[in-house]
Amino acid sequence: MNAPLYHADTVIIGSGMAGITLARELRKLDSETTIALITGDDGAMYSKPMISNAFAQGKSPEDLVQKNAAQLSEDLNVRVWTETEVTAINRTDKAVIVNADQGRDVIGYGNLVLAVGASPRPFEVEGSTSVPLPAINSLQDYAKWRAGLVENARVLLIGAGLIGSEFANDLAGAGYGVDVVDPAPQPLSRLLPDALGQVMQDALSAVGVRFHMGQVVTGVAAGEHGNIARLADGKRITFDHALTAIGLVAHTELAHAAGLHVKQGIRIDEFMRTSDPDIYALGDCAETDAGMLPFILPLMAEARALARTLAGTPTRVELPALPVAVKTPALPAVVCPPKPESEGNWVIEGSGQDHRALFIGSDGETLGFALTGQETKARQALSKDMPGLLAA
């Protein structure tokens, strides 16, 4: 192996919210420890959740950047490698191999953290090699996609989950025509009970979103007056731009090649260790005993706990009930979903846009909630009584 180009007490792979939050939390606890951050992009710090409501916030892609890599490096006293690909992990020598096609530089580590995130689940149908069906997973993706939008463009949005619903509201509010296609009966079907999913659909429809629920896109083609999407029921939708939002697939390739335990994500224990005690993982790429947790609040809790561990105080990650805010101004919503294996029923009260839904377990305990409209004000009070995802 080549001599290390650099050695750090902690090397973090990934400069998304998970990696940067961990670096910040660790630096708060230890001003002397050496930290290296390696990223395949330009290292700009931004909040990915802000992308799906950038129009509503009046922000351009450039406005979303909070700090560039140089500012981040100076503020946190962190060595940052940008536009750098980690191609392998050498667990025996505790080093990562970077830029293998440019000479195989080596960076040594004391502890290694994988904050490599996830990619959008790909969507391919007949014709999609000619008519692009892109997804957005970074600020660079968003900037490129948004640059192609023209005034009054028609947007085909495939997927009515959390990100799809947020983008639908944001684009419709900015004056674009939006058609949403999803095989589920209502939007946000994995988060909201059916009745509240219908309330959300009605609210988004009122601001101009056209829904095609219970349908799938079977093919796309270029047409004389725009692109054409064919649905399973034979209907056709004309569109200028497409956007897919059908879920995430964790980046596990690097971990798998290194012999780490991988399932849906990189498996971690209560200390966020992988199957190698000197390698940790957090964020969208990590799989806990509670499953995959692709939300901001779990990520923040993971970063704080792991920072304490890396600073010398082993700390189990504790994940209390962590409600998810749905950024749809047409219908504000907050959801604290029950665990996937929970048995029970939703009990819903309210009218108009203001609803409170409680998921009542078989023993009478409240295991989750969903709030819309003015009822979202009850978020904190209800959260205190919810069972946690992981207990320390």
Key words describing this protein structure:
single chain; 392 residues; alpha/beta; FAD/NAD(P)-binding domain; Enolase-like, domain 1; 3 domains; seven-stranded mixed beta sheet; five-stranded antiparallel beta sheet; 8 helices; globular
Oligomer: single chain
End-to-end separation in angstroms reads: 40 Å
What's the CATH architecture name of the largest domain?
A: 3-Layer(bba) Sandwich
Total DSSP E strands: 26
Measured by DSSP, the beta-strand proportion falls in: 25-35%
Helix content: 10-25%
Please identify the top-level CATH class of the largest domain: Alpha Beta
Whole-number radius of gyration? 22 Å
Q: Kindly report the CATH topology of the largest domain.
A: FAD/NAD(P)-binding domain
Write up what this structure looks like.
With 392 residues, this protein is α/β, with parallel strands linked by helices. The chain folds into three domains: 6-119 and 248-310, FAD/NAD(P)-binding domain; 122-244, FAD/NAD(P)-binding domain, CATH 3.50.50.60; 332-383, Enolase-like, domain 1 (2-Layer Sandwich). It is 20% helix and 31% strand. It is built from eight helices and 26 strands. Strands 1, 2, 5, 6, 7, 8 and 19 form a seven-stranded mixed beta sheet that branches. Strand 13 (217-223) and strand 14 form a beta hairpin. The longest helix has 15 residues, at 296-310. The chain is globular, with a radius of gyration of 22 Å. It starts with 5 loop residues before the first strand and ends in a 9-residue tail after the last helix. The model has no long low-confidence stretch (mean pLDDT 93).
